[in-house]
Amino acid sequence: MHGVFDRMDRTRLREVVRQRVNEGRIMRLIGKWLRAGVRADGVVHHPETGFGQGGVLAPVLANIFRQHVLDVGCEREVRPRLQGRAVLIRFADDFCSGCEREGDARTILAVLPKRFARLGLTSHPEKTAWIACGKPEARQASAKGDGTCEFRGLTHDWAKARRGFWVIKRRTARKRRRRTQKSLWRWCRTNRHAPVTYQYQRRCLKLRGHFRS
Fold first, then answer.
1. 6 or 83: whose pLDDT is higher?
2. Fewer CB atoms near the end CB (10 Å): N or C, the chain?
3. Contact 8, 49 (CB under 8 A)
4. Could you tell me which residues come within 8 angstroms of residue 118 by beta carbon, excluding any fewer than 6 positions away?
5. What is the crossing angle of helices 10-18 and 24-35, to 10°?
6. What confidence score (pLDDT) does residue 47 get?
7. 35 and 83 in contact (C-beta within 8 Å)?
8. Strand ranges for the chain from DSSP E
9. Whole-angstrom Cα Rg for the chain
10. Is 210 helix (H, G, I), strand (E, B) or coil?
11. Is residue 74 predicted with pLDDT exceeding 60?
């Protein structure tokens, strides 16, 4: 979803929040946050739509609105049109949808942009893509894609499980892994004369942070 913070319809946002919150004081407080404006280069701007990024309530309100637009929309408008199984994974304003049938994937690509347009949103032109991700043994030669896709810094691809059947596994994307390796190498070169105990503790912290991200 592209333009959530800038193009969000405040009237529709209040309607969505009112479905969850039935307290007038809280709704008035949310209205004050929306009308507070944004300071940029010493000048305060009061946009008519959306709300400024970095606000205290911005992540919460944006997540509520995205849940209504995407999650609820998929259950009510998209899923009844599908013929096979489908899964939706959303993280903030990025999402990945997996379909059992190719026709269902094309249906999602056709239906979701129309729903986004009704709410003043659009799909990101560079991030939106259709990728063939069938099992290696059943993948057609004419299908586009090698069965892998990257989402939120992770590469999803097919691999054999211990019992011998195909499963989708995740591993760190190559770009992120190379960036981490270069950063760690630069740190080691800069601190190569530091005490060994200090180097060991810092390297452990950096590695644990990398594996948790």
1. 83
2. C
3. yes
4. none
5. 160
6. 66
7. no
8. 38-40, 43-45, 86-91, 94-99, 149-151, 154-160, 166-172
9. 22
10. helix
11. yes
Neighbours of 50 (CB within 10 A): 20
Q: What is the DSSP string of 155-208?
A: EEEEEE-TTS-EEEEEEE-HHHHHHHHHHHHHHHHHTTTS-HHHHHHHHHHHHH
Give the N- to C-terminal CA distance of the chain in Å, as an integer: 23
Phi, psi dihedrals of residue 101, rounded to the nearest 5°: -115, 145
Q: Which residues pair with 96 in a beta bridge?
A: 89
Q: What is the spatial distance between Cα 64 and Cα 62, in angstroms, rounded to a whole number?
A: 5
pLDDT tens figures, 135-163: 776 554 444 555 677 777 788 887 888 88
Q: Identify the CA nearest to 8 among candidates 108, 119, 152, 136.
A: 119
Work out the pLDDT band at 7, boundaries 50, 70, 90.
low
Confidence (pTM): 0.55
Distance of alpha carbon 60 from alpha carbon 50, whole angstroms = 13
Give the rounded percent of residues in the chain with a pLDDT score beyond 90: 8
Q: What pLDDT, in 10s, does the model give residues 112-136?
A: 777 777 777 777 777 777 777 777 7
Mean pLDDT, the chain, as a whole number? 77
Contact 68, 121 (CB under 8 A): no
